[in-house]
Amino acid sequence: MHKSKSKRYLCLDIGGTSIKYAVSDEDGTFLDSGKIPIEKSAEGFLGQVQALYHSFSPIDGIACSFPGEVYSEEGVIHGISAVEYLHNIPIKKEISDRCDHCEVTMLNDANAAALGELWKGVGRTYKNIAFVIVGSGVGGAVIENGTLYPGTTKNKAEIGNFLMGGTRDGELMTWSSFTLEKEARRYSADFGVQVNGKELLQMARDGDAEAGTYVEEFFHYMAVGCLSVQFAYDPEIIAIGGGISEDENMAEEIMSHYRKMVEGQRMSYLYPKIVRCEHGNRANLLGALYYFLTEKEGQQPEE
């Protein structure tokens, strides 16, 4: 791959609550980075991207990570995600049009995290990896023999849709129903306060029994999900990414709950190796950039 360190790329990781951004060179070295709350409309979002682009110009390309079924060539998003107001519109063209017709690529966020770690993280050591990317929802990706394959309908490893049994408030309960952020929203509604997932976790660790009940539910379903992932894909490791991976104890706590859950059960022989993504939230940004530079999912990263 030809590398020119003079080029600058705007990398965007779009989630349900925020836009993480970085300006990077072609080697994946971030020259600037940050996070802003996302506007909850297509027009508002596009205005934010335009403002970021102009604030960091000159920019040689825009690399985007989105939730949902992301079709980069067509430039649209389908499926289920936390930003459905960006679905079914020519979002790639809209971004390019507002940013001086700059070249734009798009990639599913979990696949972006997988490519980022394959390029510069845990993928340098392991070749069969299942990624569990947890933010406001749960995303997934699988690297098999060093290659990412998103599936015929872009739904391979959409583990956030794994059913967790029964319904709640008239909706099927899925793994994405039990993220730390969702637990924090339920806690906030139940107790008339406003806390986020990070704050709820700290409250539980500080001995708040009520907060602990919600956090225990989160960890229980993380363990259930990881058990399903291990049986479904049989990876060498399960790599935890997204917002929760910023917590240094997260993988260890999930593993502890996993052991308690399967103790004495028939599947207790199966203990996955659960680790944190090396680049945490930055993995998505790195993977989006890598995809821009190669424009081919599954191509082996270069060092």
Strand order of the largest sheet: 3-2-1-4-7
Secondary structure: helix percent: 25-40%
The span between the termini is 10 Å
List SSEs in N-to-C order: EEEHEEEHEHEEEEEHHHEHEH
How many helices? The count is 8
Q: Mind summarizing the main beta sheet?
A: 5 strands, mixed
Average pLDDT taken over every residue:
92
User: What is the gyration radius calculated from CA atoms?
Assistant: 19 Å
Strand content: 15-25%
Give the structural class.
alpha/beta
Unreliable stretches: none
The number of E-state strands comes to 14
Tell me, briefly, the overall form: globular
Q: In words, what does this structure look like?
A:
- This protein is of the alpha/beta class and 303 residues long.
- Helix content is 35%, strand content 24%.
- The strands form 4 sheets. The chain has a 5-stranded mixed β-sheet with strand order 3-2-1-4-7, with helices on both faces.
- Helix 3 crosses helix 8 (282-294) and helix 4 packs across helix 5.
- The longest helix is centred in the C-terminal third of the chain and has 25 residues, at 209-233.
- The N and C termini lie close together (10 Å).
